Amino acid sequence: MRIAINGTGRIGRLCIRRLLDLAEGSELELVAVNTTCAPDMLVHLLEYDTVHGRWPGRVRTDGGALVRLEADERLDRTGIPPGRSSSPQPSSRIDSASERNPSTQNRIEPAPERNSSPQNRVEPASEQSSSPQNWIEPAPERNSSPQNRIELVSERDPSRLPWRRLGIDLVIDATGAFTDRAGMEKHLEAGAGRVLLTSPGEADLTAVMGVNDERFDPSVHRFVSAASCTTNCLAPVLKAMHEAFGVRGGWATSIHAFTSDQNHLDNPHRDWRRARSCGASIVPAATGVSKALREVLPELAPVIRGSAVRVPVADVSLLQLQLELAAPAAADEVREALREAAAGPLAPYVGYADLPLVSADYIGCDKSAVVDGPSVLARGSSVQLSAWYDNEWGYACRVVDLAARIAERASAAGRLGGAQAVRV
């Protein structure tokens, strides 16, 4: 499936990272990126991220395109030791199985120590030789094949984007600006087959992986929403609890990291609370979780209410869920049910941790939700539990997973839907 990304903010850039991490052997091909960011700045922001660490250089600019680098081209040109990659390790740092089975794959392992071999150290300048062998030369320019080129576009009107010429099957719209049907239709006017929103919107289907993604029908759904990061955390946990105990009602509170639409210093904003400094206050905020549940878990939407507060951390949020169950349940019974859920079909999306961890430990976790075992409380039929989620990286991974689901279903039905590319 030929994919274009519209918008290179926090989620757009992380989707680019994820797609390129999966490039080899993936049926998802990133063909184009529409951005208002200068090409050199985009490459820089892709490689260096204050929250998620350094991403191994996998693209460079070449005229009006990003070029994927081959493995032997991915050289460190600064002498700075590589930082933590945003790509999740095979264990995803937080594993889904119970700590009661203390096998290696079920534990949260400490980060590996960095290799201190000479080639990974930065020697003091006085000890460096000026001979050529002590300098890392830029990789030579190569003639990039078409499949390694990602076309860069800078167009504010989606209807004028070159999706028809490029044969785009799916646009991942990460701008947050074209969430109504009129806005999404512009991508189809430009020749795209479908649109996947990285936010709630007026979509034909709002899908959460592991909950209702199987509902995607390529003959019906042209506009798909990946919901919000909070809904992606809440829905699978709520589904697991409902299947295990029956849920009569409850409250969901998102203790959410600040986001780019808040002010870092007090300045005018349409939301008076978001006008205040996000780094200096706890800020009550609205959430669309209750509305999103109508499409994702319609049987529970009428009995679940949501609220949110923004707190002064850059990434990773915590969902607190208070539930009234159909029958009394002990805390240990709840923990066991959630362990089993995290080891079952929901394993790619839900994790479980018994360790007393904090939000910083979950930066880079690709799960939609990681249940915090020590926080589970129960009294009679009332239960409180908490789940961590990396509201940036974890959500970007779900967006790409949903794109893969769309590709799988559309390909099987012969309905990829994009205009055939015009080769020039």
From TrEMBL:
Descriptive protein name: NAD-dependent glyceraldehyde-3-phosphate dehydrogenase
Organism of provenance: Paenibacillus pasadenensis
CDD domains linked to this entry: GAPDH_I_N (cd05214)
Entries under SMART domains matching the protein: Gp_dh_N
MF terms in GO: glyceraldehyde-3-phosphate dehydrogenase (NAD+) (phosphorylating) activity; NAD binding
Domain of life: Bacteria
Pfam families xref list: Gp_dh_C, Gp_dh_N
InterPro entries, A to Z: GlycerAld/Erythrose_P_DH, GlycerAld_3-P_DH_AS, GlycerAld_3-P_DH_cat, GlycerAld_3-P_DH_NAD(P)-bd, NAD(P)-bd_dom_sf
Family: Belongs to the glyceraldehyde-3-phosphate dehydrogenase family.
Residues of the Glyceraldehyde 3-phosphate dehydrogenase NAD(P) binding domain: 1-229
Entry keyword Oxidoreductase: yes
Region span, Disordered: 71-156
Enzyme type, top EC level: oxidoreductase
Keywords annotated in UniProt: Oxidoreductase
Biased composition (Polar residues): 114-134
EC number: 1.2.1.12
Composition bias type Low complexity, residue spans: 79-95
Presence of keyword Oxidoreductase: yes
